Amino acid sequence: GANLGREGVELLSNALNHMHLDTLQLRENDIGDEDIETLLAVDNCRHLKTLTLHGNRIGRRGFDAISLFLRRNGTMLQRLYITNNEPINNEPMDEECAKNFVDSLPK
After folding, report:
1. How many Å apart are CA 34 and CA 57, to the nearest integer?
2. I want to staple 104 with a disulfide (CB 3.0 to 4.6 A). Which of 4, 54, 70, 78 is the partner?
3. Are 78 and 49 in contact (CB under 8 A)?
């Protein structure tokens, strides 16, 4: 991973406003909850078909942001890789968050 950091996430988010990507691979970049909230708030992310977030620092808030993203109209995501995330704030996905996440997956 590139360890984007907060500044890198901001730059990437700005760039995503001007392009349509099918695939975004951000594994092992120390992306945390606030970072994933910033990235997935970009409207053009709805065009993604594959999103790789393996090995980052995503916790409960980040998984809630992913759930919200999956529920948005027009999301084309087909593959989501989220294994091996250890949250920075020691707030991992709990039962309520897991249920919300599973409920947001396409049926």
Report:
1. 10
2. 70
3. yes
55: tokens are 């090995």
Q: Which tokens hold the place of 43?
A: 């409207």
State the DSSP H helix or E strand holding residue 80, giving kind and residue range, or none if neither.
strand 79-81
Give me the residues paired with residue 52 across strands: 25, 81
Nearest CA among 21, 2, 95 for reference residue 13: 21
The structure tokens 């949250």 sit at 87
CA atoms within 13 A on the CB side of 93: 19
Instruction: Answer yes or no: pTM beyond 0.70.
Output: yes
Q: Are 67 and 40 in contact (CB under 8 A)?
A: no
Whether residue 80 contacts residue 51, with contact meaning beta carbons closer than 8 Å, is answered with: yes
